[in-house]
From TrEMBL:
This is Cinnamoyl-CoA reductase 1-like. The gene is LOC115728845. It comes from Rhodamnia argentea. The lineage of its organism: Eukaryota, Viridiplantae, Streptophyta, Embryophyta, Tracheophyta. Keywords: NADP, Oxidoreductase. One of its GO terms (biological process) is circadian rhythm. Gene3D superfamilies: NAD(P)-binding Rossmann-like Domain (3.40.50.720). Residues 13-245 form the NAD-dependent epimerase/dehydratase domain. The keyword Oxidoreductase applies. It comes from the Eukaryota. InterPro entries: Epimerase_deHydtase (IPR001509), NAD(P)-bd_dom_sf (IPR036291), NAD(P)_dehydrat-like (IPR050425). SUPFAM superfamilies: NAD(P)-binding Rossmann-fold domains. Pfam families: Epimerase (PF01370). One of its GO terms (molecular function) is cinnamoyl-CoA reductase activity.
Amino acid sequence: MPVDTLPGSGQTICVTGAGGFIASWMVKLLLERGYAVRGTLRNPDDPKNAHLRELEGASERLTLHKGDLMDYESLREAIMGCDGVFHTASPVTDDPEQMVEPAVIGTKNVIVAAAEAKVRRVVFTSSIGAVTMDPNRGPDVVVDESCWSDLEFCKSTKNWYCYGKAVAEQAAWEEAKERGVDIVVVNPVLVLGPLLQSTINASIIHILKYLTGSAKTYANSVQAYVHVKDVALAHILIFENPSASGRYLCAESVLHRGDVVEILSKFFPEYPFPTKCSDEVNPRAKPYKFSNQKLRDLGLEFTPVKQCLYETVKSLQEKGHLPVPPPPEDSVRIQA
């Protein structure tokens, strides 16, 4: 299809932290839809960012810019002339000093630069961490866009990642309101799926530990999951839909760790999965209820979690992060 007939033709989107797991998929899908993309990276020449230049359409419509969240001028330069910004760059750490201040200052810098560049919309990648951390939420409450994490609870439990995500999102809303910037927020849960980048990110380690034998047990806890492509596409649909507003919870299903291990062991019986829960005293944790209706209303069709888990492992094998052991005799290979 000629580029000038695609939905993004003639428009430019700046993606911050373009080499990351989710951001790389944003760049890929934006290029496929005909957008020109400007990616900010701390070091555009780092070999770990080489995968971006190999994406289809990259040679014609992708430029990589040296940008640091703490350096306003570098962000301003990358954002000037763009129609939209996908702000996804964020520190991932449990160190409060490294997490909170850069996340808040970086977010404010991006929004001020977006205001100066008069971009049409900023789509901000927040997190489920800004939504669910609330000890007072009853078991029957459906988690949706109206829920916010309790900052005091995050602090008292030293969950600096969730604290940082919540205060960064609050800062984004406040700064955008002050500067007259149209901002819409995506709150993804734990993101899985095929890697485009060569390095392993934090959410993938969550699965990898069950395949390598390093986890001897699984926790008595639940986690919500979503496919990386769905998260990237959610940002694009939100940018393209003028009526999109507020927050969008991006989740496909909530599984107990035991369910995750069971699904994976059926697909890949050759790996040493844990068979025991680390907590066999307390009752099994129950999945919480959530609504992803807002994104479905925009036309997003979520990838089933089983397919998501299968593709994650296949990708780890293809990238050489996971040995491919011979299948056991008499095992039946289950297809995704």
